[in-house]
UniProtKB/TrEMBL annotation:
GO molecular function: hydrolase activity, acting on carbon-nitrogen (but not peptide) bonds
Pfam family, one: Amidohydro_3
Source species of the chain: Rhizobium oryziradicis
InterPro entries: Amidohydro_3 (IPR013108), Metal-dep_hydrolase_composite (IPR011059), Metal_Hydrolase (IPR032466), Metallo-dep_Hydrolase (IPR051781), PhnM (IPR012696)
Record-annotated membrane-spanning stretches: none
Name of this protein: Phosphonate metabolism protein PhnM
Lineage of producing organism: Bacteria, Pseudomonadati, Pseudomonadota, Alphaproteobacteria, Hyphomicrobiales
Amidohydrolase domain ranges (all copies): 259-362
Cited SUPFAM superfamilies: Composite domain of metallo-dependent hydrolases (SSF51338), Metallo-dependent hydrolases (SSF51556)
GO biological process, one term: organic phosphonate catabolic process
Amino acid sequence: MSNETVFSNATVVLEDRLLPNSSVVVRGGLIVDISEGVSRVGEDFGGDYLIPGLVELHTDHLESHYSPRPGVRWNKTAAIQAHDAQIVTSGITTVFDCLRMGSDEDGGFEHGEMRDMADAIQAAEKDDRLRAEHLIHLRCEVASENVLQHFEDFREDPHVRLVSLMDHSPGQRQFQTMDQYTLYYKTKRGLTDEQFARFVESRRTASNRYSTKHRDALAEICAARGITVASHDDATLAHVEEAKGHGVKLAEFPTSMDAAKASHKAGMSVLMGAPNVVRGGSHSGNIAATDLAENGVLDVLSSDYIPLSLLHAPFVLADRFEHISLPQALSMVTATPARTVSLDDRGRIALGLRADLVRVRRDHGVPVVRSVWRQGLRVA
């Protein structure tokens, strides 16, 4: 049949085991057969891995293409295409593009700019410019006065499938110590002592005034629309209890082992950065993702700011920890993130699921993406 594709002599990575020297048949964009043994027809993988297409829930990477330098704005369509190309060639077939909601003295994007970006993504999709499937993750700064106003631009957008509730105020969550906050906001931005003091006071005032009511309002809207809610940078057991009350399913970047363990125990998927795994630690000085993996409370990885890290990190985990097999590690970037956001049609090599597939070669070191298919069509 003309719309049938056969992959042969592959090491097929299922959710719970490896099938060496096996074959997969794709028809009509779906996986219709998985069999042990080498087929006489089809593409010979020569033993390369066949894995599900990666599912990326949290990447800020689009921003670096759209605003490559402070004050610079690139053509949106060109930025999206560049982002998409790097995403797909990293093995990612489903990507949640992060768009920021809420402005502050730190600058950032103007109101309406993120809505324009979302419109550009959807226009590029309609024009068949994109190779990955692009969905939207709204990163909502709950301490911002205008976060609800920004969110209103997306209230009826079906592409919004994930919303994270964030508060980057000093003295809590990601910035529990002022040393971390000073480095990030004063030293890197070249603020004077007086400017920094005013900035800190303004942030604290805004957090006290807006955070709780904005968290509550956004969680209520998401519950009504069936949008997955993520917490962000939870540090304490109180933060986790708050997240449970808001129906959170994804705990992004917990900053303490206690918060990670409590989130995992509560049934939330605990997400950490794949660059954290590859580097062996957090760039901001918080807990290492490998510590969570060692304790069995790491569920999902995100490429965050390095797309290829999403494929690289599972191999690092499988190499380092005897209790984490390669299928288990790859589930952190395929099956588990897909389930967390209710994308049950992908993330696994199983009969009847979407043929989002990646051919990967890895003899040692960094894995290499050889080919990528989305819904059975080769896109890279």
